[in-house]
């Protein structure tokens, strides 16, 4: 299969993906030999603009959050979902569109969230893993998270929520992220930064400090990459594979020759996957042995239609740092 990306670009994206540092300066200071020179990286960043989004992949379970993958067949009007971080139009039959929402739901609101999404389908999962494939590496799948003790990090350092959630919104350079946070919180920014001198001019340091705390807790896994030039020349398949970890790895190994990237999330009965590859990926899925295809559910294709509904995690209305509690917006 012909590589969809220039090898230099692919190596750079893989280096960015492996990093647990936040911000371009931090990445370059990491002295990763796969990362290009600072001038090259800055030039790429400017030329790609909104076509490239890099978001820290954090183990949110310890922050009291759960991943919810929501499918709405008849979304009406504006989507009132204060926990959504990304959205996409997908289809199962190439005729009817379904709205996909990726949400991070506080454990305290799981029941209320499920009720609010009545009529839709929800797949709950643990935090996932993304991998750009090369010919000489194994396919990696995250291990399902057992019951984990919730960290008190959000209570002690509530600013990790704005820092994390704003990075899901483009543009997400640190100065602009701080500007949006300050604009949304206004005078309440002090509530999210207790016992801290607010650096209004150089507020991006608050963001890097927040992620330094997340790194110290071992919660930053990698970077998730949304690279639109690759999506534009590929097909993205959303699929639930109801098999154990080793069996899912076998299924993906069968598709490896037509895969550019894999994003996988452990669920209670398998893995929720986003598969990116050339259009031959559809043929490869259809030609899987029947005993494998019987374990595939919720198979959708990304329509890549724009605009998708604008969604964001409304931390300013869903978390009360004074009382250290989640509230419903």
Descriptors:
329 residues, 9-stranded antiparallel beta sheet, globular
Describe the structure.
With 329 residues, the chain is α+β, with helices and mostly antiparallel strands. Among the domains are: 7-54; 153-221, no CATH class. The chain is built from 14 helices and 13 strands. The chain has helices at 7-18, 24-29, 38-48, 110-116, 153-156, 160-166, 174-185, 189-192, 204-216, 228-232, 245-255, 280-286, 290-293, 315-318, and strands at residues 52-58, 65-72, 84-91, 97-106, 121-125, 129-132, 220-227, 235-241, 261-267, 270-277, 296-302, 319-320, 325-326. Strand 12 and strand 13 form a beta hairpin. The model has no long low-confidence stretch (mean pLDDT 88).
What is the chain-wise order of helices and strands?
A: HHHEEEEHEEHHHHHEHEHEEHHEHEE
Q: Please, what is the oligomeric state?
A: single chain
Q: What is the number of helical segments per DSSP (H or I, 4+ residues)?
A: 14
Q: Could you give the distance between the termini?
A: 48 Å
**Cα radius of gyration in angstroms:** 20 Å
Major sheet: size, sense and barrel closure?
Answer: 9 strands, antiparallel
- What topology, given as strand order, has the largest sheet? 5-2-4-3-11-8-10-9-6
Give the % helix: 25-40%
Low-confidence stretches: none
Please count the beta strands (DSSP E, at least 2 residues each).
13
Let me know the average pLDDT: 88
